[in-house]
Write a structure and sequence with these properties.
13% strand, 16 strands, six-stranded mixed β-sheet, alpha/beta, 25 helices, five-stranded parallel β-sheet, 49% helix
């Protein structure tokens, strides 16, 4: 392989910078100085930049490249070129893995042999074995040896997971590197970064992005997109909003001469990313939360105190008064079966996320054994199911905006309660793969019937027998649910009956349930040990099943009026159909 052939696979980032193909670095002065300081050292002069995706690792390297080409660069680094390898092009041109490895090694030999090059490594499989890229093993052996004998001058870029999982395990390589950990920029710093970089998007889309839009983009992503990092997530919102603007113009939804990107497009992007409706993202959110009780009481009957406690916690979270590094709210619901605990959880999911199914329900009676922790966070490496992750961590990672319900929490193994301390205190959980899963956009609800019949002054002493004080102290509120009276049950039955009547009407069957039948359902639910949970089965057995049978026999046809009443003895529900005239 000739030098000419090799050169086409070498990416010269310094030349690209001279052609203004790299983005200028904004901020990060201390980190940039640290990189220069490391590169000037006699030994161990290889910086390893560690940080999660989107935090600005590549931007820092590009800022370094720009600095080395400036008059302020130290003489020892002034003529250095930062280079990388175009692995994709090399793979396309290689006819076999052996040919790829041979050429890659030749490229590395050429780079190492030149004192003018600093090798920029984005893939650590070129330095340590990761088993992800087996074709890199032979070139990596060569590169590692050159690093260890001091012949190689390089900059390594990696994420925390790879750093801990691979680099830290190879102590020989690690001792030749100087680690530079990047912290996520603050919202204020991100505003400065985005304002400096917005011109790239303005020129590309031929639009104007106002400073007000930049601030809105940072604030929206800071509030709703907590599982990603600044500045990338804010810049992505600019990109998406400008793209949506072009689509709206093409569809005739926006005048073609409009230049400035409107802020409501940023809200639409957030809605697309999170699934939260636009109207729940905008500035009306505060007004909506002020009326949270009114909405929740439409579904949760007879538990006004519980509704008020939950609504207050939601408003604290949205006002910014609550710790931003914790879940939106965390509650322990205390009460007997079938009095509204799960219904309030579902109502919260609908109210906050516009989706009743935005609820991850975990029955803690299935997590009583010590080994059951692995079901939540995933099995350890090397065991079956490791790739699939845990039910809890994967469920929240894939859908970060939801209610997480731990049913019958007192039955959980103590190790699971210890695990939840991290969620309640820090708003995150580390899974078996070492990935941090963000819980800050979730509402944590735990239910229990422990001490449900005891007076308030005795309840805490009983709860501490099941839960450690540090666990109870991390919960926002312990919410007591009261027994339902007949009036409450009548309202709940009306709610469920109205749902059934609407479903029947949609199929052309018009049901009327008289007061005698309603009272029978109230009495049955009131005496049931399952509470309101018995209502669903009662409706199925007493109305839905008999009505379906009549429909199959064609004794009830579309357009029929259907009366649901009781027999003369008041012991059996009867259904009468009458054909509409």
């Amino acid at each position: 392989m000739t030098k000419t052939d090799i050169s086409k696979y070498i990416i010269d980032y310094t030349e690209q910078n001279q052609k203004e193909k790299l983005i200028r670095l904004v901020g990060r002065t201390d980190e940039l100085n640290r990189l220069v300081h490391i590169l000037l050292r006699k030994s161990r002069n290889n910086p390893a930049i560690v940080g999660p995706s989107g935090i600005g690792k590549t931007a820092l390297v590009e800022g370094l490249i720009d600095f080395l080409a400036s008059d302020q660069a130290p003489a020892a680094l002034k003529n250095k070129h930062v280079v990388g390898v175009d692995v994709a092009a090399l793979m396309l041109d290689s006819e076999s893995d052996g040919g790829y490895a041979q050429t890659l090694k030749a490229i590395f030999e050429h780079i190492v042999g030149s004192k003018d090059y600093i090798l920029y490594i984005k893939d650590v499989s070129f330095l340590v074995r990761t088993d992800v890229s087996p074709e890199n093993i032979e070139p990596a052996k060569f590169l590692k040896l050159k690093l260890l004998d001091g012949s190689l001058n390089c900059i390594v870029e990696t994420d925390p997971f790879t750093y801990r999982g691979y680099l830290e395990k190879d102590t020989a390589v690690l001792q030749m590197l100087q680690t530079v950990f990047l912290e996520e920029p603050t919202a204020a710093q991100t505003i400065q970064i985005v304002q400096a970089l917005k011109k790239n998007y303005e020129e590309f889309y031929d639009v104007v992005i106002s400073d007000a839009f930049v601030e809105a983009a940072v604030n929206l992503t800071n509030r709703y997109i907590k599982q990603r990092y600044f500045p990338e997530k804010a810049l992505d919102l600019l990109d998406d909003a400008a793209s949506l603007m072009q689509m709206d113009k093409a569809a005739g939804k926006m005048a073609p001469d409009v230049k400035e990107v409107p802020i409501d497009l940023g809200m639409r992007v957030i809605s697309d990313w999170t699934g939260i409706p636009v109207e729940k993202v905008d500035t009306e959110d505060k007004k909506r939360l002020a009326l949270a009780e009114e909405h929740l009481k439409k579904r949760v009957v007879g538990q006004d105190n519980a509704v008020v406690v939950v609504a207050d916690a939601l408003r604290r979270s949205r006002s910014g008064l609550q710790d931003p590094n914790r879940p939106i709210g965390s509650f322990l619901f205390i009460g007997e079966t079938g009095i509204g605990k799960t219904e309030l959880a579902k109502s919260l999911a609908e109210f906050m996320f516009n989706d009743e199914t935005a609820l991850l329900r975990l029955d803690m009676s299935e997590y009583m054994e010590k080994h059951s922790v692995t079901r939540l966070i995933g099995p350890p490496p090397g065991t079956p199911g490791f790739e699939l992750g845990g039910l809890l961590t994967e469920g929240v990672r894939l859908k970060p905006f939801q209610v997480v319900l731990f049913d019958e929490i007192e039955k959980a193994n103590p190790d699971i309660l210890t695990l939840l301390l991290q969620v309640l205190d820090e708003g995150r959980l580390t899974d078996s793969k070492g990935v941090h899963v963000d819980f800050r956009n979730t509402i944590i609800i735990m239910t229990s019937n422990v001490a449900s019949n005891m007076p308030t002054y005795q309840r805490m002493s009983v709860l501490t027998q099941y839960f450690r004080p540090e666990f109870l102290n991390r919960i926002d509120d312990i919410v007591t649910f009261h027994q339902l009276n007949e009036e409450h049950l009548r309202k709940i039955i009306d709610i469920h009956l109205n749902k059934l009547l609407k479903r029947a009407a949609a199929e052309g069957y018009y049901l009327t349930v008289d007061d005698r039948a309603k009272q029978w359902f109230v009495d049955e639910v009131f005496t049931s040990k399952f509470g309101v949970r018995a209502l669903k089965r009662l409706l199925q057995h007493q109305i839905e099943n008999p009505l379906a049978f009549l429909i199959m026999q064609e004794k009830v046809k579309p357009g029929s009026d259907v009366l649901v009443t009781m027999d003369e003895a008041g012991k059996k529900v009867q259904i009468f159909a009458k054909q509409k005239k």
